Amino acid sequence: MNAPAPPRFQPLYQQIREAILHALQAGEWPPGGLIPSETELAQRFGVSQGTVRKAVEVLTAEGLLVRRQGKGTYVVSHDESQAQFRFLRLRPDEGPAVQPVSRMIHCRRVRAPADVQRALSLQGSDTVLYIQRVLVFGEDPVILDDIWLAGEEFRRLTPQRLAHQSSRLYSMFETELGTKMLHARERIRAVAATAEQAGLLAIEPGQPLLLVERVTTTFHGRPVELRRGLCRTTHHHYANEL
């Protein structure tokens, strides 16, 4: 019989990061809210201010907190200007990035297909909320989204509620459901548009599209969303900074 793995050593600042993360998950400090000062957090956790500062720096680098000069450190919200395009990486070839308008096509609860089960670590009997929509930039339909949402929190969403929602789903998930989309893993490939996809994106069948498949996670790496976006790149491109 194999011996159990030894406990993994975790630096103190990482332990404080985990403690702050638990507080964020519990909603102790809401999105957009001010967190306690480094001195207060040091007293709360019984560590040095330098240890707290390092933990906060890590969370800031991870995009969960934001420092504001002379004001303090705040919980990042999807309503923040710097966060609005964090996951939407498609940019116009010319001019500034703008928020698209969402046109809902389908919204219903379904049993998770096998590939969705694997991506979201679900059981065979689990259901998900399936959304299909088109994102319109100006007058042009540019992205065809297929979205699968897992988790108890999404059971409260209804087609009626989502029908009046703009493109900023993550902001609504955060403010109304308390679900914060934190991290994403993406895969990108080129595909040819089917006749149905071409009709929804106002292009010719067979035209090349950029398929962006994303698995989004919330606290502690819990996957809650699988999204497949088919993108027209006639006047847009995928932008990233490494």
From TrEMBL:
<dbReference type="InterPro" id="IPR028978">
    <property type="entry name" value="Chorismate_lyase_/UTRA_dom_sf"/>
</dbReference>
<dbReference type="InterPro" id="IPR036390">
    <property type="entry name" value="WH_DNA-bd_sf"/>
</dbReference>
<dbReference type="InterPro" id="IPR050679">
    <property type="entry name" value="Bact_HTH_transcr_reg"/>
</dbReference>
<dbReference type="InterPro" id="IPR036388">
    <property type="entry name" value="WH-like_DNA-bd_sf"/>
</dbReference>
<keyword id="KW-0804">Transcription</keyword>
<keyword id="KW-0805">Transcription regulation</keyword>
<dbReference type="GO" id="GO:0045892">
    <property type="term" value="P:negative regulation of DNA-templated transcription"/>
</dbReference>
<feature type="domain" description="HTH gntR-type">
    <location>
        <begin position="10"/>
        <end position="78"/>
    </location>
</feature>
<dbReference type="InterPro" id="IPR000524">
    <property type="entry name" value="Tscrpt_reg_HTH_GntR"/>
</dbReference>
<keyword id="KW-0238">DNA-binding</keyword>
<dbReference type="GO" id="GO:0003677">
    <property type="term" value="F:DNA binding"/>
</dbReference>
<protein>
    <submittedName>
        <fullName>GntR family transcriptional regulator</fullName>
    </submittedName>
</protein>
<dbReference type="Pfam" id="PF00392">
    <property type="entry name" value="GntR"/>
</dbReference>
<dbReference type="Pfam" id="PF07702">
    <property type="entry name" value="UTRA"/>
</dbReference>
<dbReference type="GO" id="GO:0003700">
    <property type="term" value="F:DNA-binding transcription factor activity"/>
</dbReference>
<dbReference type="InterPro" id="IPR011663">
    <property type="entry name" value="UTRA"/>
</dbReference>
